[in-house]
Amino acid sequence: MTVSLTIVQCLTEYANNPLGIDVSRPRLFWRLESSDRSAAQAFYQIMVASSQELLEQGVADRWDSGRVASDQSIHIAYAGETLRSEQTYYWKVRVWDTHGEASAWSQTAYWSMGLLSRADWKAKWIGRKSEKGVDMQPPPYLRKSFQLTKAVKRAFVYATALGLYDLRLNGSRIGALFAPGWTDYETRVQVQAYEITDQLTVGENVFGAILGDGWYAGTVGFLGENVYGERPFLLLQARVEYFDGTSERIVSDSSWQAAKGAILYSDLIKGEAYDARLEPTGWDQSGYQAEVAWEVPDVRTGYNGLLVGTVEPPVRIMQVLKPVSFRRTEAGTFIYDMGQNMVGWTELTVSGVAGHQVTVSHAEMLNPDGSLYLDNLRVAVQQDHYVLKGIGEERYEPHFTFHGFRYVELIGYPGEPDLATIAGKVVHSDMAETGRLETNDSMVNRLHANITWGQRGNFLSVPTDCPQRDERLGWTGDAQIFARTAAYNMNVSRFFSKYMQDILDCQQPSGAFTDVAPDAGWIRHKMWNANLNWFAPDNAGWGDAGVIIPWTLYVMYGDTRILETNYKAMADWVNYLRDNSEDYVRPDYANYGDWLSIDADTPKEVLATAYFAYSTQLLAKIAGVLGRKDDQIQYETLFAAIAQAFRDAFVGSDGRIHGETQAVYVLSLQFNLLTDEQNKLAIEYLTTDIRTRGDRLSTGFLGVGYLLPALTEHRKLDVAYTLLTQEEFPSWMYSIKHGATTIWERWDGWTEHKGFQTPSMNSFNHYSLGSVGEWMFRYMAGIEADPAAPGFKHTIIRPRPGGSLDRVKASYDSLYGTIEVAWHLSASSSVFRIEVTIPVNSTATIYVPGRVYAIDGVKGTSGSWEIEGCQPLESTEDESCFKLGAGRYIFESDLLAVQASV
Ligand code: RAM
Asked: Which reaction does it catalyse (predicted)?
């Protein structure tokens, strides 16, 4: 027997060798490969050691799991001795397949622990006093020169800021952009850890840090500045270990030096100004001869929040775009088209005389006269100003700001620029792209691309609503409706785990989850007021994110810990809704309704009661997963009572639902609120409404997420495809027909007859209406996670061919490996062909539309095949069903039977 399994990737807490974590029982993951069909794991053994050498010798001095009978290869919690501050843990794993054959040991993986207690921190928070009479403060530059006399064995640095830090060591940048990320700084701040062994030298070394105001002290949303504090501070502690067993620390304290530098100001929302003549050249390297006066830094006495290990993935430059065209304007400026609405900034290349200023201005759209459309920015200023130093070719990119734009205007550019003058740096949280989707319809492909660009543009530390105007807030409603789509597109495990902390940090004592997380100031400053019907902390479809997002992470990644960690908060939310309802109906009060729907106002009490039911039903399922039987029964009973109350209050004897919008029907259908009889009526009313509107949708942010799923599940697939490919207003394709490269905030952000919508709320990069991406993966391609074996341990493959599509190819990188589906429908012969790949150590059930007549080219009839890894299950008239083990399979079916029955 040959060895069938190979271990190809080991992760800790979803990450590749993470540093500075503070999880007491980190979860370990590995991915398996095999060329055998149905390959699966039957046993595993994990070894954890305090050094790589010991691990290599087979000494597991921290933990040896022993040989465990288990098919689990994800989320195995470390169960060894208590983990200690600043220690590194090395681990490896081996597995046995179902025939008892052992794999080789995996390669060594590791994680390191951060500073686990306050007492471990010797560093002080340092900053620089504000300049008097200056409105926007110059970012402080901080530096520390230190000598090392011996060769370094290993060194780590732990850093964070109240504000943002840009850290350098011996002239090179270390770490992420926009670190430490946005949290509710009154509650917590994330600490990043970096290994710096190779960057240190014997002799003089220099740490340099530039601090930005960021979310802490700069402009946040439309709430102005100083939401959390007055000015930024750095906290840094490095530990250097020598070969002789000794070690030393370098910490931020009053022995550092502070000054202002070349950045005149840098604000998330207001842009940056930079005077290159003021660069303190060499300030972050050894041998620096100070030309400016460095001062003693300002030391802040304390910080009452938590210092926690970073959960979110780092923000980085993820792509660089070249402009596609540019032109000179009458005013002598140059307007570039990046060809894509993107988020990040522009890198500028320029030569000229010292003191000359170039302004780089950004906008998403152009006015009819060809000038930049700036009206939708509100008070945001998407401009960076660069003053030349006048030496050779100069390159500039801003530091602590980002912009949402497709068009770039260079104002005051000296000489003749060309296409190489600028480059667009695409900046977002670094999440692996996990989903790919391609069809024979280029507009559908563009829609998928636009959805993905919306995610790139808005997943920056937190999921923001938009990236351009003075808002950019973590709106919970937007995040929940898009969460599943987001999880197909990219690995959002860490991103949303961190965001759940933000949601929890904002939860009200009453149990209410908020509209926005992290708190951007209005809760703390009591800017919300229930009587004002605005910014209340418990809006339907917004607060429910606190339940929907953990459930999504469970379904997509099999993460039960996120359910455990958030269980109390979720129960508090549902109990809060229950205690604030009347006979299980949520009152009509502050909420946004089906936000930005088109001529279809969904009554708020209907929407709020529907979401109350949905959160309760999810909570019942979650209680079941966690083995909380009593709670499960309690919430199932509550759900039944809410659904009954919903029917009594809102469903007429003719089955019409109060409001009669598309949204009330799809929410009722998808949240299981109706009787079977009412379901049938609801789908009829829904499709009639769509037809009466000329085959158009009318749903807003919330309804849109359930629209195509509801139609598909209730045998109106043709209507789902009609809406998907509809090109008349309002529709997804309408925006694409008019050049959209991202998802717009509003269906009518721009229309042929009205032009731009009111500029006070008109973003062209808002992902909410892009929640149709979920339908494209789950239904159109048919890659569905089975909640009963979550994280794609068992996948349900159920493609839904229809509309004008005859070819769909999609793949999704699950924790087990890549699931692939490629289907093709040949209309003339009504032959449906599908190729699927199921990853090792996982299984699938496939529903092939029509009557399958060949598998892997072997012809047969149901029950008569003997195909390895593939077992026929009971089929229906419409679909043939099989259970699959890992491997690649090809099915061919005859679709005539189905078409006849639709
Ligand atoms: C807008 C935001 C956001 C939405 C709220 C209700 O200001 O853009 O997307 O969730 O309103």
From this structure: Hydrolysis of terminal non-reducing alpha-L-rhamnose residues in alpha-L-rhamnosides
Q: How far is the C-alpha of 465 from the C-alpha of 471, rounded, in Å?
A: 8
Distance 713 CA to ligand 1 centre (A): 29
Query: Could you tell me the two tokens for 875?
Result: 């089929």
Q: What is the pLDDT of residues 357-386, one digit of tens each?
A: 999 999 999 999 999 999 999 999 999 999
Query: 125-127 and 298-300 as β-strands: parallel, antiparallel, unpaired?
Result: antiparallel
Q: Cα(192)–Cα(174) distance, rounded to whole angstroms?
A: 11
Q: How far is the CA of 338 from the centre of ligand 1 (A)?
A: 27
List pLDDT tens digits, range 767-776. 999 999 999 9
In this prediction the pTM is: 0.97
Question: Which atom of ligand 1 lies nearest, measured to the CA of 465?
Answer: 9
Q: Which of 464, 466, 471 to mutate to test the pocket of ligand 1 (most atoms within 8 A of CB)?
A: 471
Q: Is the pLDDT of residue 177 over 70?
A: yes
| Cα–Cα nearest to 488, from 818, 833, 743 | 818
pLDDT of residue 160: 98
pLDDT in the model for residue 895: 85
Give the amino acid at 336: Y
Name the residue of 465, 513, 769 to mutate for ligand 1: max ligand atoms within 8 A of Cβ. 465
Residue 530's pLDDT is 46
pLDDT grade, residue 536 (50/70/90)?
Answer: low
Residue whose CA is closest, atom 6 of ligand 1? 592
CA-based max dimension of the chain: 86
Instruction: Give 674 Cα–ligand 1 centroid separation in angstroms.
Output: 30
Per the structure block, which two tokens stand in for 466? 């938009």
What is the token pair recorded at 105?
């040991």
- The span from the CA of 336 to the CA of 325, in Å, is 6
- Is the Cβ–Cβ distance between 468 and 752 less than 8 Å? no
Q: Active-site residue numbers?
A: 471, 745
Q: Is the CB of 614 under 6 A from ligand 1?
A: no
- pLDDT for residue 900 is more than 50: no
Q: pLDDT per residue over 417-453, tens digit each? A: 999 999 999 999 999 999 999 999 999 999 999 999 9
Token output for 341? 């609405």
For residue 471, report the distance from its CA to the centre of ligand 1, in Å. Answer: 9
pLDDT 10s digits, 209-248? 999 999 999 999 888 889 999 999 999 999 999 999 999 9
Which among 212, 244, 216, 243 is positioned nearest to 228, based on CA atoms?
216
State the Cα–Cα distance between residues 714 and 679, nearest whole angstrom: 9
User: Which residue CA neighbors atom 8 of ligand 1 most closely?
Assistant: 465
Residues paired with 7 in a beta bridge: 32
d(CA 445, CA 152): 52
CB 490 within 8 A of CB 435: yes
Dist. CA 709–CA 704, nearest whole Å: 10
Mean pLDDT of the chain: 95
Instruction: Give the CA dihedral 635, 641, 644, 648, nearest 10 degrees.
Output: -140
CATH 2.60.40.10 corresponds to the domain 6-112: yes
Domain boundaries, the chain: 6-112, 121-311, 316-429, 435-781, 785-901
The helix or strand, by DSSP H or E, that contains position 389, with its residue range, turns out to be none
Residues 425, 346: contact at Cβ < 8 Å? yes
Q: Does the pLDDT of residue 337 top 70, yes or no? A: yes
SS3 361: strand
Closest ligand 1 atom to the C-alpha of 476?
Answer: 10
Question: Helix 676-692 vs helix 662-670: angle between axes, to the nearest 10 degrees?
Answer: 150
Q: Do domains 121-311 and 316-429 have the same CATH topology?
A: yes
For domain 316-429, which architecture applies? Sandwich (2.60)
Q: Is the CB of 767 under 6 A from ligand 1?
A: no
- Choosing among 3.40.640.10, 3.30.930.10, 3.40.50.970, 2.60.120.260, the CATH entry for 121-311 is 2.60.120.260
